[in-house]
Amino acid sequence: MENYKQQPITETLEENYMPYIMSVIMSRAIPEIDGFKPSHRKLLYTMYKKGLLNSGRTKSANIVGETMKLNPHGDAAIYETMVRLTRAHEALLHPFVDSKGNFGRHYSRDMAYAAARYTEAKLEPICAEVFRDIDKDVVDFVPNYDGETTEPTLLPVSFPNILVNPNQGIAVGMASSICSFNLSEICETAIALMKDPQHDLMLTLTGPDFPTGGQLIYDADALRKIYSTGVGSIKVRASYRYDKKNNSIEVYEIPYSTTLEAIIEKIVDLVKAGKLREISDVRDLSDKDLRISVELKRGTDPDKLMRKLFKLTTLEDSFSCNFNVLIAGTPRVMGVAELLGEWIAFRSECIKRGVFYDLNRKKERLHLLEGLRKILVDIDKAVRIVRQTEEDSEVVPNLMIGFGIDKVQAEFVADIKLRNFNKEYILNKTDEIDKLRRDIEDLQDVLDRPARIKKIMTDQLREIAKKYGKPRRTRIIYADETEADDDTDEQTPDYPVTIFVTKEGYFKKVTAQSLRMSGAHKFKEGDELAWTYESKNSAELLVFTDKQQVYKTKVSSFEDTKISLLGDYLPQVLGFEADENVVYAVPATDYSGHLLIFFKNGKCAKVPLDSYATKLNRRKLINAYSAASGLVGMFVAEAGTDVVLTSSNGRILVINSDLIPAKTSRNAGGVTIMALKSKNTLERACRLAQDMFVRPDAYRVRSIPASGSFLKAEDKTKQ
Q1: H-assigned helices in 525-674
Q2: So which residues are the catalytic ones?
Q3: Cα dihedral sign for 690, 691, 694, 696?
Q4: Using one digit for the tens of pLDDT, what is the confidence trace for 537-577?
Q5: CA distance 91 to 213
Q6: Which one-letter DSSP state was computed for residue 392?
Q7: 424: in domain
Q8: Of 10, 102, 440, 518, which has the fewest Cβ atoms less than 10 A away?
């Protein structure tokens, strides 16, 4: 009988299983504050040391082989890690590896990547921000597994990579699932948090942005929960278009959490089960880009079918968030603000260490040059000391005695070439002393003042957002756009109409014939005409209110009337809430152009008008515009529209609408257009009329924000 040892199960777990658990958590599954797991970090650092940031590509097999000096795991695991980081694999919003060859696709389960000997890779330009100042002792280095070299414990990423690229991992007893956010939005949010730790993230962070695009179903409560706790779930659905010619639906973007094979297999199973009788065929037509073709039977409503597919397949899927990150070796689940706070603290320390490194190098240089300056008093004496010294080991001590300099300075002097022992050379060298002293003083000031560290970080974030920022891939849609509607399509007669809306919210739709025969307008006492439009009976009417809501209705739903009548009272017809008032109304036919929304804080949100277009005829949309600041006004503008802004202290600004960057979300806070001093506000915003100013260019600016100019004498007689 074999000998065996009895051991309590608790002791077995503690001695054998606990080390494995710790290894998985600390060294494999959970990312750290730089946004990387150890396998990512080892691979990228190896590529950086190979000079692949500023050179051509090399074979992936070479990279894998070199990485094994830091990563003791097999070559297959290392290559699989590299595949996910490549541009071709499309798993990251901002890939770190520039690749050539077949690296498969994140959205495909069956598309296998080629072997490492067939593919090539190098680092993407954004990696310059990942390794910024790494050679200046900004992060700690530790020996590798065999002690032959060293590797960084973290990478000094100069942007919050932990929230910019998606990251998922399963450890023992815990997991991590971090969704990706738009780089520009994350940088803007980090800057805002540095200025105000109580900053409302909803104002700058629209929502997750996935590499595979799709449509994020906006749920403010769910997002706020994720932002505050780091835990929650969001819904993402596929993007599609209807091909009328071939009577088929083409799906070109899918949720990040699914694959095209899973979607196709599910559709096929549903068709076989008789639950989707509207579909005649489904095919994978993907080449360089994802494309699923769903062929329809005659008479099928594509939008109605897609609503069915969203319910029955992963064309609409949930992404579960669990922002679990290793902080100083401890797993912690944190919200976005807390996570960004940890990154800001980490990055601040990196910048301090870089500044301290530069400070010491400059102090050392200054010390050497101050010794050299002492030689300038009598160069001949220095030459004579060297010549008359019989032993080489005595040269440095004799120079120290002769000029009263220390050993380091004397070594520096002794190493100067004979041809450089002249006054011109020494004067040129010592000219640096004053500049070095100023630099040292400035660097010391940076270390002493946290505000300057924040300024450096802010400038870097703005530079990165400008250089590497991309438009959102995941489009925001609102929950009310996904609900079914009871409205039935009817054939609407279409003809030209003139639309009048008053300040109090009275609506009149007048035909051309009636307009020619009408007399004067009739208004309720104290009311006046606010908006007039030439439109069509088939248009939709958007009515914005002071409760940040927009009511939608069809122009055709109103009876033709005369201007001599009061008209229809919109708050009553559309079912406004108590104390809700009209702030703007506009008819929309093709939803072209942008809605310019101006706020008292001098900001303007430029929102595409089609953000308010819905496939389903919803009567009311919430979050129509931002509530962060008081509303001054809004109007729809085509490209190249000139706008006039007036502040409370009488300054006037003329800008072109093309200068204002567009926002993707309806409730965006906008960008600052008019720079306002304290207590001043934006009072008025309107289109530039032809005879408004004698010289409009006297108030025009070419860049924003701007303060504007006071009214010129020649314009004071004008209204």
Answers
A1: 570-573
A2: 118
A3: negative
A4: 989 999 999 999 999 988 988 888 988 888 999 998 888 88
A5: 11
A6: G
A7: yes
A8: 10
